[in-house]
């Protein structure tokens, strides 16, 4: 138990920043919207659905656009949409873009390596452990694409009969049944 307490003090929290969380939530929403036939979303609409601050979301969307994940359309009915097919958007790449390296300590980073302070880096037990942590995180995040996350999300929403986001909201009951029949 003492080892884990000491280890906890040595290792920074390995977690997604708010910026990273919001970026992934936004991309998932863009993927859902595209899958449901409404690929163009306005910032206010997205911010309202996800209960996110508009200005912060705009900054994130600009970063995603700059990296080639989103495109934008100007005008009254403009907004953002995916610039790449969801099958080409790897979750791990997005996390690295927004939050930087996945490594919990710099000496195991493949993107931002820095020599650690231990005297024998090659035989450092902490470095070996953190290398495994980094690899596990990378293997999971790099295994999934936006398309896979959207597919699972839609499947679960339909199974649980949750109203689909970005779908036409003013449908009469008979129109809703027709849309459901088309989606099945």
Can you offer a commentary on this structure?
The protein is mainly α. It has two domains: 13-89 and 145-183, Winged helix-like DNA-binding domain superfamily/Winged helix DNA-binding domain (Arc Repressor Mutant, subunit A); 102-143, no CATH class. Helix content is 54%, strand content 4%. It has helices spanning 2-10, 18-35, 43-50, 54-66, 91-99, 125-141, 146-159, 173-183, and strands at residues 70-73, 79-82. The chain has a two-stranded antiparallel ribbon. A hairpin with a 5-residue loop joins strand 1 and strand 2 (79-82). Helix 2 (18-35) packs across helix 4. Residues 1-12 and 169-184 have low confidence and may be disordered.
What is the CATH H-level superfamily of the largest domain?
A: Winged helix-like DNA-binding domain superfamily/Winged helix DNA-binding domain
State the name of the first-level CATH class of the largest domain.
Mainly Alpha
Q: Which topology of the largest domain does CATH recognise? A: Arc Repressor Mutant, subunit A
Order of SSEs: HHHHEEHHHH
Counted by DSSP, the helix tally is 8
Cα distance spanning the termini: 52 Å
Order of strands, main sheet, comes to: 1-2
How are the SSEs ordered, and which strands pair?
Layout: H1 2-10, H2 18-35, H3 43-50, H4 54-66, E1 70-73, E2 79-82, H5 91-99, H6 125-141, H7 146-159, H8 173-183
Antiparallel strand pairs: 1-2
Helix pairs in contact: 2-4, 2-5, 2-7
């Amino acid at each position: 138990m003492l080892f884990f307490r000491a280890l906890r003090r040595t290792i920074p929290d390995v977690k997604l920043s708010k910026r990273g969380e919001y970026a992934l939530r936004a991309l998932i929403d863009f993927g859902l919207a595209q899958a449901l036939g409404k690929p163009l979303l306005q910032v206010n609409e997205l911010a309202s659905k996800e209960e996110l601050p508009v200005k912060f979301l705009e900054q994130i969307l600009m970063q995603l656009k700059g990296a080639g994940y989103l495109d934008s359309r100007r005008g009254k009915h403009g907004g953002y949409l995916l610039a790449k097919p969801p099958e080409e958007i790897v979750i791990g790449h997005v996390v690295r873009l927004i939050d930087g390296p996945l490594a919990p300590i710099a000496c195991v980073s493949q993107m931002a390596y820095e020599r650690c302070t231990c005297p024998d880096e090659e035989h450092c037990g902490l470095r070996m452990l953190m290398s495994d942590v980094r690899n596990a995180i990378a293997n999971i995040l790099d295994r999934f694409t936006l398309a896979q996350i959207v597919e699972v999300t839609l499947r679960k929403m339909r199974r649980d009969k949750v109203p689909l986001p970005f779908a036409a909201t003013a449908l009469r009951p008979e129109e809703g049944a027709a849309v459901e029949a088309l989606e099945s």
